[in-house]
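pasting for ref
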Amino acid sequence: MLEVADLALDYPDFSANYSLTVPAGALCGLIGPSGGGKTTFLHAIAGFASPSRGALRFSGRDLLGLKPAERPLSILFQDHNLFPHLTAAENVGLGISPRLRLDRGQHDAVAEALARTGLAGLGRRRPAELSGGQRQRVALARAIVRRRPLMLLDEPFSGLDPGLRREMIELVDALRRDEGLTVLISIHMPEELGAAADLMAFVAEGRVLDVAAPGEMLRAGRNAAIDRYLGR
């Protein structure tokens, strides 16, 4: 279980305070207007931002005292951050060893991650030789090869066509179910989560303003701020 309580961040032009509980193995969609604090929230969980107070626990373990690399999570950004001079397999291998010093078992883990994300046989290709969807699959393979139980995704598929976005969300959901991952995904179009999400959190003005099951969250009239966000 991910537990976030009164997690506060203060900047000269922006302040945030987050509270959210996500059950173990659940997929939670973060929705809300641009600039509302979704990315800041994910960065705080990942350790890229320093809260001034609050609590952050995963499976009962306090994460606030841990450096980003020590936290039991992987993160996938909108920009896939692949190195153009490395092959797909080497980019995935960076998730295990920044110096790419992999033993036989780790090479096997890279091959398995590529296969799990539909990239079997493409490990020797460089990013320029892959489609946009394939590059995002490489980034996803790099995230899952770390075998971390918590996955954070910050609008990772927004640059893809609608059909590919749905395909990638279905892939994330399948991996989540197979591996027992807890997933937070920030997404611009909440309806694209379909049946994948167990719950949604509406984030705006640096706060989690509402949490509910997807059908209830998107019900017209539930919340005026959500209706405005959805253009209703």
